[in-house]
Amino acid sequence: MSKLEKKFPEGFLWGGAVAANQCEGAYNEDGKGLSTQDIAPRGITGPITEEPTEDNMKLIGIDFYHRYKEDIKLFAEMGFKVFRTSIAWSRIFPNGDDAEPNEKGLKFYDDLFDECLKHGIEPLITISHYETPLALSKNYDGWVNRKLVGFYENYVRTIFGRYKDKVKYWLTFNEINSVLHAPYMSGGIFTDKEKLTKQDLYQAIHHELVASALAVKIGHEMMPDAKIGCMILGVPNYPLTPHPSDVLEAMRQDREILYFADVQVRGAYPKYMNRYFKENNIKIHMEPGDEEVLKNTVDFISFSYYMSSCATADPEKKKAGSGAGNIISGVSNPYLEASEWGWQIDPQGLRYILNLFYDRYQKPLFIVENGLGAVDELVTDEKGNKTVIDDYRIKYLNDHLVQVAEAIKDGVEVMGYTTWGCIDLVSATTAELKKRYGFIYVDRNDDGTGTLGRYRKKSFYWYKNIIATNGEALQ
Question: Which residues form the active site (predicted)?
């Protein structure tokens, strides 16, 4: 591929992504209420505690709450056009159902967005990113309860009214389909996953889909020039073999993901869900007007992509070949290598899923999470500067971006690309800091030690060059 062929569209939104609960810290400062994350010290891999415990890395995170100016300056040095983060719902409404918002929380995001804009960086804001106010989870069982639609609507109207002149790009829910696999983290559902019925789970999903459509409707009314997207956890499924049963199983697993996008992009439930609901005795209760609300469809589709998976109908092969993954996992692909955390590395899968989404929806696409979690070693270079020689991360990102360029050549409309964890942060799934993604090393360790100092990795300068050349420097 020549340099010219790797040219990305003019105005392509290069940047990076984080989430409030994984980087901000300050979990109990300036009127913030507790969120579901504050009592989950092991992420989705461990127990829920009664109260926040000192071993929960997210309570301090990387102290972005106090250091955001320093960090945004580093993002600007790389040339970011966009920065994706989230608003902590419980920083605005500490209990979720409060009559009035917390002014200190609102002011923090005013300051944060102003800092981004000062450096020419557009904020891309996730409204709800894996951190339901804990009171809504405990008192209402999260999104199982219809009342959360109203609480979310009140929250949305508040932040849209406050930030309408500062934020052009919004996402309604992070990885909305992950609620199927992580109902507490994704949907704030306090009922134990093993005891949660499919009826309640899919009713909760309906409430989220209605709330997402309401956010689109309200956003278009309050901010006519804003773009509001959905956000999907993207894991394409390949048949493990050409056996028709494996092909059909891959189709079934793909539909677990596509169902959420179908509703948010097409504005109605897809017909294939009728059979699933019937066979599982699920009856979605719709309030009057829900079907009309769902017709408020998103302006673009954003998604995360870290890995692909294989699907098989053979229970023995399924058991023998199970692999690790980003909340969703499947059967390992014998043709792919894996990261230190067992996530299979498949750059071509990104081209595949871009084409899959675009063929299906013909809507602009935005890759808002992609990256490599790895154990990084902080070293001192020949100039005496602390850094990380992360050639493995550069290769991972380079290979994926080459496939984005291929998808663009295929005719796919791609708005932008934000790497996940552009600065080291606390892992969502395991609540570790040793699983690092960033271009910027943060001196904090899983035992709580460290200065919280920031250091540019080798990949920092690599990504700066990729942005400066609009992708032409890709290999």
Answer: 369 (nucleophile)
Q: Is pLDDT above 80 for 350?
A: yes
The reported pLDDT for the residue numbered 2 is 47
Distance of CA 44 to the CA centre of its chain: 15
Point out which residues pair with 365 in neighbouring strands.
301, 414
Between CA 84 and CA 442 the distance in angstroms is 19
Q: Count of CB atoms within 10 A of residue 143's CB? A: 31
Q: Is residue 473 part of a domain?
A: no
The gap from C-alpha 241 to its chain's centroid, in whole angstroms, comes to 30
Q: Which amino acid would we find at residue 376?
A: D
Domain with 22 in it: what CATH number? 3.20.20.80
Q: Residue 273: which residues within 8 A CB-CB, separation 6 or more?
A: 259
Distance CA 24, CA 91 (A): 11
> Is the pLDDT at 474 greater than 50, yes or no?
yes
Amino acid in position 36:
T
| pTM to 2 decimal places | 0.97
Q: How many CA atoms lie within 13 A of 160 on its CB side?
A: 25
What one-letter code names the amino acid at 281? N
Q: Does residue 326 have a pLDDT over 90? A: no
Question: Which residues, 6 or more positions from 468, have their beta carbon under 8 angstroms from its beta carbon?
Answer: 79
pLDDT of residue 324: 67
Write out the DSSP string of 19-50. -HHHHT--TTSTTPPPBGGGG-TTGGGSPPPS
The alpha carbon torsion through 403, 409, 414, 417 (nearest 10 deg) reads 30
Mean pLDDT of 346-364: 98
180 belongs to a structural domain: yes
Q: How many domains does the chain have?
A: 1
Candidate list 175, 249, 369, 432, residue with the active-site label: 369
- The whole-angstrom separation of Cα 457 and Cα 473 is 18
Indicate whether 460 belongs to any domain.
Answer: yes
Catalytic annotation present for 369: yes
- DSSP structure string for 401-460: HHHHHHHHHTT--EEEEEEETSB----TTT--SSSB--SEEE---TTS-S---EEE-HHH
Write down the pLDDT at residue 45.
Answer: 78
Q: Which domain holds residue 361?
A: 4-468
The pLDDT value given to residue 319: 79
Question: Which secondary structure element, helix H or strand E, spans residue 126, and what is its range?
Answer: strand 122-128
Tell me, yes or no, whether 388 lies in a domain: yes
Pairing of strands 13-17, 82-86: parallel
As a whole number, the mean pLDDT across the chain is 96
Name the DSSP letter for residue 240: S
Question: What pLDDT score does 3 carry?
Answer: 46
Q: How far apart are CA 44 and CA 133, in angstroms?
A: 17
DSSP 224: T
pLDDT of residue 323: 67
